[in-house]
Q: What sequence folds into this?
């Protein structure tokens, strides 16, 4: 029996509904992904459930703000969409958020 | 559950809360008007709650009808689940039936908007003697519209990682609901406080993410069997029907979902539909008087 790690990984985000069409994209990013900020995240896909973690090896790094983590997650989403390809690769998530916030409602029609 | 509302919200929504335990969750519903087994049932969608009917409830109750407006799991004052699986549409249907059974409802005329359609019509499917009249506005039967098949701006909003980020960690979708409302509501601080309240209180709103993912995009999707069953049943529901629909809604355009439903229902052409050119997705905020009158008329006809 393996002992549990002394410092557990920190779960950052769980997505319970990753469609099949994205499974190759997740695998293409690998089990550890580095955000443009330099922070590293673990990716574990089991069935349709994707868990994004901060690896235990970063437990002693300075704590980042929720805003910074969300920027990393936005970049992770963008990387997944680009790895998925097709129409997804063209989606710019900052623009999408702006559209939904009402900055450019004409894009919804 | 949200025990107490902020004073400003309560002033705009002055209805006594009612509660029922359904599948281990405390669900809230409004229950106004005289005690009767015949009710006007008002069903909301995503990401709103019974607050959407605040201007309609008093009018229907004043006309002498009992009005029930539930908050689905993860919405309004009701409990929130912690797993997407708890928000499957068939579970919403089952829990709504529990609300109706607890309230002693035997017959209902229902107004369905957005997900209120599949959930309300799902209740009618499960309880064949329940439905006495059907009011429809900017809704569907579980199959996605053309809008829902587009990657931008819809599917990308709730894709992997992005969905939990925009729906659960950040209120991008909840705040975006303003786009489907009249400007006087979109800029009303009390209304916006009310619509943001569940997210604000719980710090997230997983249920709002489960809903878009539950829209069927075709065969093999978990919601497709319900959509197929509803489409089949719609052709045999010989009940009075009213439509109050916003034509400026890119999600459920009148010419796509509205006219198909009208053609499908046996009495769909029995009355002229109310189609508001400037009305958008949350039609209750654009046409409360028309919806109230439609439901009063349906109750009179359906319960005769």
A:
């Amino acid at each position: 029996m393996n002992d549990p790690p002394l410092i557990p990984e920190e779960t950052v985000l769980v997505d319970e509904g990753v469609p099949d069409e994205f499974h190759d994209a997740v695998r293409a990013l690998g089990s550890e992904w580095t955000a443009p900020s330099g922070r590293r995240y673990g990716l574990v896909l089991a069935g349709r459930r994707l868990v994004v973690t901060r690896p235990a090896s970063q437990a002693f790094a300075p704590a980042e703000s929720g805003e910074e983590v969300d920027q990393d997650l936005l970049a992770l989403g963008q990387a997944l969409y680009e790895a998925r390809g097709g129409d997804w690769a063209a989606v710019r998530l900052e623009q999408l958020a702006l559209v939904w916030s009402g900055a450019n409602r004409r894009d919804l029609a | 559950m949200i025990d107490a509302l902020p004073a400003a919200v309560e002033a705009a929504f002055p209805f006594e809360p009612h509660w029922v335990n359904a599948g281990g969750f405390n669900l809230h519903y409004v229950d106004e008007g005289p005690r009767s087994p015949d009710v006007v049932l008002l069903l909301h969608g995503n990401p709103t709650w019974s607050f959407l009917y605040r201007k309609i409830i008093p009018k229907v109750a004043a006309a002498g009808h009992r009005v029930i407006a539930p908050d689905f799991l993860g919405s309004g004052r009701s409990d929130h689940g912690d797993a997407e699986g708890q928000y499957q549409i068939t579970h919403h249907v089952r829990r709504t039936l529990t609300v109706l059974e607890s309230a002693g409802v035997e017959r209902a005329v229902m107004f369905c908007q957005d997900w209120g359609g599949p959930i309300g019509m799902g209740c009618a499917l499960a309880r064949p003697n329940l439905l006495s009249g059907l009011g429809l506005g900017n809704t569907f039967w579980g199959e996605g519209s053309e809008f829902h098949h587009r990657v931008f701006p819809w599917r990308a909003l709730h894709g992997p990682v992005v969905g939990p980020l925009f729906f659960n960690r950040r209120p991008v979708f909840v705040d975006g609901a303003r786009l489907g409302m009249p400007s006087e509501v979109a800029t009303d601080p009390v209304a916006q406080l009310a619509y943001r309240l569940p997210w604000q209180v719980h710090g997230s709103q997983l249920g709002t993410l489960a809903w878009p993912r539950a829209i069927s995009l075709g065969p093999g999707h978990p919601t497709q069997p319900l959509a197929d069953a509803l489409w089949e049943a719609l052709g045999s529901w010989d009940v009075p029907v009213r439509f109050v629909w916003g034509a400026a809604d890119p999600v459920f355009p009148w010419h796509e979902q509205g006219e198909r439903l009208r053609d499908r229902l046996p009495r769909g052409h029995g009355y002229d539909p109310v189609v508001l050119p400037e009305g958008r997705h949350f039609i209750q905020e654009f046409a409360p008087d028309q919806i109230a009158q439609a439901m009063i008329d349906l109750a009179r006809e359906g319960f005769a």
